[in-house]
Amino acid sequence: MLLRSDDDSLSVLALQVTVFPNQGVAVGVAVHHAGCDGSSSTRFMFSWASTCAGPRSSAVVVAAPPVFDRSLVSVPRDLYFGQRAEWIIHEDPPVDMVIASFTLKRDHIRRLKELISAKDGAMEGGGASFRCSTIMATYAYVWVCLIKARAYGSDRTAHFMFAADCRGRLRPPLPAAYFGNCIGLCFVEAKAGELLRENGVVSAAKAIGKAIEGFGDDPLRGAETWPETVRSIVPQQLLSVAGSPRFRVYDLDFGWGTPNKVEVTSIVRVGAMSVSESREEGGVEIGMGLRKHDMDEFGTHFIDGLDRLQ
C-alpha cells in the first residue's frame, strides 16, 4: 500500500532524540507502514546505528544492501496500488490506556512448550503432538491471559491476528534484504470457553499453529479481503501483534552501548501487544497496551499462570 504522490499529510519517517543530562539518551522513531514493514525498518535502524558507531559498534552488521525492486513481488489484483488506508483507525486512545512490559524467561518458555506438547498428546489419545515453537507458546499464553482478564463469556468468539514475513515463503523467495512491505496476515479465532478451560493454552497454541500452517506457500492468498476482515473484527476487541523476537532490537548500538529498554508505543492506540527478544538470552519481552483495569487483571493472570508452571 503506497500513498499517492500528492498525499503529504503523514511523514514516512519521524525521529526524535531526547537527551537526559547525566542519565542517557532516548531515540524515538516512527515509520509509516506505507514505506516499509518491521523487518525493513529494523534493518534501517541497524545500518544507521552501525554507521554512527563505526568500529566501536557491537551491533549485528547488515551485510547485504537493501533491495528495492518491486517487480520481484507478484501481487494479486493490483493490490499494491488498489488498496487505500481509510479503514485504518486514527482515533485517539482512551485516557486510561497504559503500557506495561512482561517477560517470559527461557525457563518459562521451556515449561510452556513442554506443557503444551504433553497436554496435546494426552488430548489426542497419546498420539504424536505438534511442534510448539517459542512464538506460538508466547502468543498462546498472552492470548489466554487476556481473555481471562477481560472475563469473556464462554460463548463469545475471541480474535487474534499476527503478521508473518512473506519474503522466504514466496515462490521464488525474495531476498531477506528486500526493503518495503512483504508481510501477510494470519487470523485466529476460538470460542472463549475453549481458552478459559484448564488446557486453554493448548487450544490457543493449536489454533495459532493451524493458522501458521495454513499460511503455507501461498501467503498472499486472499490478501484482497484482509482490510475488510480486520475492519469486521476490530470492534470485537481483536488482539494484534507488533514486532518479532527475530528483530534483535536489544543488539542495536549507536556507539553508546545497547539499549536499556525498547518500547513499541503504537500498541497503546489499538490495545495490542508487542514482542521482542528479552535482554536475557532465550526469553521473550512482551509489551501490552491496555486500559488500566484490564492491565491490572492481565498482570495478575500472567504472574499466577507462571507460578503454576513451577
TrEMBL record:
Transmembrane segments: none annotated. Keywords: Acyltransferase, Transferase. The keyword Acyltransferase applies. This is Anthocyanin 5-aromatic acyltransferase. It comes from Musa troglodytarum (fe'i banana). InterPro entries: CAT-like_dom_sf, Plant_metabolite_acyltrans. One of its GO terms (molecular function) is acyltransferase activity, transferring groups other than amino-acyl groups. It holds the Pfam family Transferase.
